Amino acid sequence: MEFFAVAFSLALIALTVVFISRRRSDGGAKLPPGTFGWPIFGESIEFLFGKPEKFVGDRMKKYSPDIFKTKVLGEKTAVICGPNGHKFLFSNEHKYFTAFRPHPMQHLFRSYKDKSAPPAETQRPDETKAIRQPGFLKPEALIRFLAKMDSITQQQLQVHCADKNEVEVYPLAKTVTLTLACQFFLGINNPERIARLVKYFDDVTVGMHCIMINIPGTIFYRANKAAAAIRKELVTVIREKKQAIASGSPMRDILSHMIVVTDPSGQSMPDYEIADKMMGLLTAGYSTVATTITFLMKYVGLNPEVYERVRAEQLEIAASKKPDELLEWEDVGKMKYSWNVICETMRLVPPLQGTFREVLTEFNYAGYTIPKGWKVYWTVSTTNTNPKYFKDSEKFNPSRYDEGEAPPPYTYVPFGGGPRMCPGKEYARLSILTFVHNVVKRYKWEVIDPKEKVEGDMMPAPQKGLPIRLYHH
């Protein structure tokens, strides 16, 4: 009994110290309403293993529709909500905020950093800056890749669907999008090599937002192993690419640029740094696109009138082209209703729930103070299904984006906004529209289990892979 009494007393003292230090560290500022949750874990478990929109929605109702505080993934965090919150965040990037990757992401994608080195020696521009400069993701660059994108999509549909009556959409979408991403970012088109990587990328994607417990059986442990396997493969690809460049091969992909680019002192990036940056780009260009394709197939399959309109639009484009002629930029501009369908899919099932920022300097918002060093969480779930902004918000209705029915400003921002708007927006748009164009020309489909459970937290996924019954045209 004495042992337990001493242990209880020590625990009570520790909690008191933590409580007092918390009070002192925030300097008496008027913090947003909310709770930091449990010691150490905060509210991470509710954040990670509940529905993100429920986590945010419940706290908006309980504390404030504008802002609340929480502690997730080890960080004191302010969640700024609604269209006014979106506008404030996008308008004050670099003034109050800078990008922040949660600690699991830092660990998975920053293996090359020397933890003992001063910060100045380890800081390089992140991968999004590296690809913005040469303009790989600008329309004029993507135009050159569109025909290849069309060709690869046709090949993948032929391989995975041609002789089948039933297909699981999610594995198909992942294989197609990873094949496209590997071709675009790495310049490789080796189906067998790419197929080996799909499971690894799944584990990394899930591990980007998780509790960092690195023991066998945990999400973080699997993500670490997967990241190591991807990194090993990418280093091999990098060395092959270097040999090809030395032999005079043209440099038409992002990997080639990263190999030859140098910092102000003339130093090029080490192979492992390039590998980590490419892994980050591939993950971003793979998971969100595959998720959107998957749920688009679900909603279109469940809404025959939507399917007929999409098919009519795409057949009209196909009829204007010669046999076997690949898609061109002008064709994509004619896919207006198909793009509405994609937008509505992303509204109901956001492929990315949100991102974090770090507070550079203390600021006030909605009457509350957010201290320097806190994190801010930006999420689409405060507006996407809010009936205040979207009529019949739970209904799948692509026509709501037609002229005159557009949602109010800052209520629908699936790619973020401001200086940190997703640089891959146009790449994602083209890859999904190319898939839609090819799939509706060849097939009609029926969703086998319309009520299939959706798993996942930050990255939604159908539990059974969304099996569909295919009907060949």
From TrEMBL:
One of its GO terms (molecular function) is iron ion binding. Transmembrane segments: none annotated. It is a single-pass membrane protein. CDD domains: CYP90-like. SUPFAM superfamilies: Cytochrome P450 (SSF48264). Heme binds at C422. Keywords: Heme, Iron, Membrane, Metal-binding, Monooxygenase, Oxidoreductase, Transmembrane, Transmembrane helix. The keyword Isomerase does not apply. Pfam families: p450. One of its GO terms (cellular component) is membrane. InterPro entries: Cyt_P450, Cyt_P450_CS, Cyt_P450_E_grp-I, Cyt_P450_sf. It is found in: Membrane. Its cofactor is heme. Its main location: membrane. GO terms for biological process: sterol metabolic process. Belongs to the cytochrome P450 family. This is Cytochrome P450 716C53. It comes from Avicennia marina.
